[in-house]
């Protein structure tokens, strides 16, 4: 049997739901506490709020307290997963099938059974996909490799009617739905030439500033810590990996008194919703029943790290489904914030919807990122962020690695789509990273 890269875990777990596919590796995928291997981690998953960048601890605490109180008053505290305890029990125990020298006939028979089960599961999944998307392809045909299965699933949902990839600068930054795209000059380390006014000048000139390097400033550790970074992403990672670590935040709530609430869009916790401890539903007598978990339809969805600030003890939800109750529409093209994840499972099957919705139309977050309105305005004035309006199709696009093909980082795609000076910043950023790699190879 053939196994795939950890980035295709969600496809395997979908098979697990459909046909009891046997997993041999936990492979949690990109984790916010393990940014890369081979050197010290640059991403921290700590829940302790670091000192804020532009304002005092007391002001930050006040914003968090006011937002938390406001949520409780509006009864939108979505604590629906039994306290939110996390533990890695989803995958159960693992068995080693790599020992080819094992002469135990019973174990060899078990291997054959699992291989047959895998083939049946893949064929069954392909058949179900054909039915869902009205495919004319023959659903009973056996898919002989996981790559074929992945390509099939992608081809069926690749074209969404009337949807396009687009991004543009935001004219009004401080409003729900605005995406804050990190300025790499504020987050990434610079080479020796950049510190002397080289590549840093290119960033400054691309954004319409001067090129003398006289106003160079060192990176602020508090800014990095606010987004879970313990140090600047090093150039040795390469530009794509660096871009993966540049914060991209969507604003979901704005209040002049209580502050601005947003969630990071490109930090995974390493957990799936199926990893959450979910108490089984109670029957009519109040006893635990044998019914499926509360969030059964979302079990294979990643749990995202929204930030270091904690104003909710439950899950927060960004989604595309208009029939979810108590959700607020935050973009004109139909992106929503809020609602009850349990109710959302029924809402996405509402017959009035214009298309079939799935768990991949939802993103679930723990914690968030909080600013006072004054602090965020100052960061915008200092060009810490490039505020943008981005299509929902771009924000919800799968960015898992598909075999040897690397997915384009969210930061990179947004900067390219905005074009103009933003594309220049992106090109300069990538050129600097590639030049660093070439110099490193020559040493």
Automatic annotation (TrEMBL):
Stored InterPro entries: AlgH-like
Extent of Acidic residues compositional bias: 97-116
Alphabetical UniProt keywords: Signal
Pfam families for the chain: DUF179 (PF02622)
Superkingdom field: Eukaryota
Residues spanning the signal sequence: 1-26
Region feature Disordered, mapped onto this chain: 97-117
Keyword Zinc: no
PANTHER family per UniProt: TRANSCRIPTIONAL REGULATOR, TRANSPORTER, PUTATIVE (DUF179)-RELATED
Protein name per the record: ACR COG1678 domain containing protein
Lineage: Eukaryota, Sar, Stramenopiles, Ochrophyta, Bacillariophyta
């Amino acid at each position: 049997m053939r196994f795939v890269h950890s980035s295709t875990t969600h496809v395997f777990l979908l098979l697990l739901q459909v046909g009891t596919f046997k997993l041999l590796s936990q492979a949690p995928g990109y984790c916010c506490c393990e940014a890369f291997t081979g050197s010290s981690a640059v991403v921290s998953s700590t829940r302790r709020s670091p000192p804020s960048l532009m304002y005092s601890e007391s002001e930050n605490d006040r914003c968090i307290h006011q937002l938390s109180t406001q949520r409780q008053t509006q009864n939108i505290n979505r604590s629906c997963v039994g306290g939110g305890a996390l533990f890695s029990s989803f995958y159960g125990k693992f068995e080693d099938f790599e020992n080819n020298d094992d002469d135990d006939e019973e174990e060899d028979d078990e291997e054959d059974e699992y291989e047959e089960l895998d083939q049946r599961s893949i064929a069954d999944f392909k058949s179900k996909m054909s039915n869902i998307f009205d495919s004319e392809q023959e659903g009973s045909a056996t898919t002989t490799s996981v790559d074929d299965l992945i390509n099939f699933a992608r081809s069926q949902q690749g074209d969404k009617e009337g949807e396009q990839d687009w991004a543009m600068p935001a004219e009004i930054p401080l409003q729900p739905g605005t995406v804050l795209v990190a300025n790499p000059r504020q987050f990434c380390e610079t080479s020796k030439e950049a510190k002397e006014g080289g590549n840093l000048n290119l960033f400054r000139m691309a954004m319409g500033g001067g090129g003398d390097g006289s106003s160079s400033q060192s990176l602020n550790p508090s800014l990095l810590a606010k987004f879970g970074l313990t140090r600047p992403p090093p150039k040795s990672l390469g530009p794509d990996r660096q871009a993966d670590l540049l914060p991209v935040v969507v604003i979901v709530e704005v209040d002049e008194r209580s502050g601005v609430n947003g969630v990071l869009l490109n930090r995974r916790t390493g957990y799936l919703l199926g990893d959450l401890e979910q108490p089984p539903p109670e029957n009519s007598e109040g006893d635990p029943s044998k019914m499926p978990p509360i969030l059964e339809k979302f079990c294979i969805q990643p749990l995202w790290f929204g930030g270091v600030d904690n104003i909710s003890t439950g899950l927060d939800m960004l989604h595309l489904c208009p029939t979810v109750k108590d959700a607020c529409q935050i973009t004109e093209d139909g992106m929503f914030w809020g609602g009850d994840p349990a109710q959302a499972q029924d809402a996405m099957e509402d017959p009035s919807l214009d298309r079939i919705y799935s768990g991949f139309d939802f993103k679930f977050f723990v914690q968030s990122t909080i600013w006072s309105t004054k602090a965020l305005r100052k960061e915008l004035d200092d060009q810490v962020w490039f505020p943008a309006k981005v299509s929902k199709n771009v924000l919800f696009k799968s960015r898992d690695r598909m075999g040897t093909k690397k997915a384009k980082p969210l930061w990179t795609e947004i900067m390219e789509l905005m074009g103009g000076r933003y594309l220049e910043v992106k090109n300069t950023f990538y050129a600097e990273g590639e030049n660093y790699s070439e110099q490193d190879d020559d040493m």
